[in-house]
Amino acid sequence: MPKVKDYVQKNPDGALKVVTGAAGAAGAFGKKILDSKQARFEQKKLKGKVHPRKLKYREFHNNILPNLDSFSYAQLNKYKHEVENYLKQINREENRELVLKQPIHSKRLKGWNIILEQLEDFIFAKNYEELLKAANNLEYVSPYFEPKIIEKLRESKNESLISMVHGYTKKEKRDIERDFI
Predict the structure, then answer these.
(1) Angle at the Cα of 77 (from 75 to 78), degrees rounded to 5?
(2) What's the mean pLDDT in 136-141?
(3) What is the pTM of this model?
């Protein structure tokens, strides 16, 4: 170690070149590993050897979660129920199979729970935003909610309005009172 320290102190530019070269090589190696892993996955997928739930997990991760803004309330609710069903499936499998597989199942549960949490948080925030827009502007047409939900919101008064908004958003009732009444 003392030789390395001396070399770095005497040649700071040379040491930087060595370190950046090594980092570049490590990055290229890591990319190569990821690419080969992706290629193996694609081959398995073409042969039908990938579990459907794993394909759906990747779809959620790569396509659905990054584009949550583009979905309606009904679509997001459908996705939420789908994720809840996957969690139930995994729990049933965990109860049915050996104790040795529980770490695998707990990892899967953790991944799906993260997706469910992100979906729910987004849905509650988006619901609040859309309901607030509809309540404050009678001409607002929501691309997110169905028209009957907006009509029901506009017809509701005080306590029924608060309970409706709370049901869709899980916000504190005092926050709802502040923003809607």
Answers:
(1) 65
(2) 92
(3) 0.73
